[in-house]
Fold:
Amino acid sequence: MKKKKYVKYDQFASPILIGHQALAQARSTLKSVRTLLEQRESDLAAVQTALRDLESEKRKLGESHTTDRFSLELELDRLKRDLARCEDELARARDDLREKERARRDRDGAIDKLVSFVSHPFVYGVF
Structure:
């Protein structure tokens, strides 16, 4: 029969302790890396949300810009029509004024003739 050899516990204790410490350190590192990864994923989600918000805002501004431009073009067309109408009204008012001025001159001329006729009846051969 063979004789069994017994190994002292101290011979294996040191490598086991070192392995246990390395495992604990690896677990600690893994935990910190996971925490860091969660922070990075949270940061990435925040950046993606911010980008989506910016894209949405850009789209809204583009739509608003287009709407504003269309509204301004409509307003400009309305103002052009109003200006043309006002110019037509001004031309009619000037024509009316010229007609009234001509009628006034004719009336003044007729009044002058009547006054002259009444003032000098002998010149016209009435008497």
Remarks:
- The mean pLDDT is 85.
- Residues 9-119 form the longest helix (111 residues).
- Residues 13-120 form one domain.
- Helices lie at 9-119.
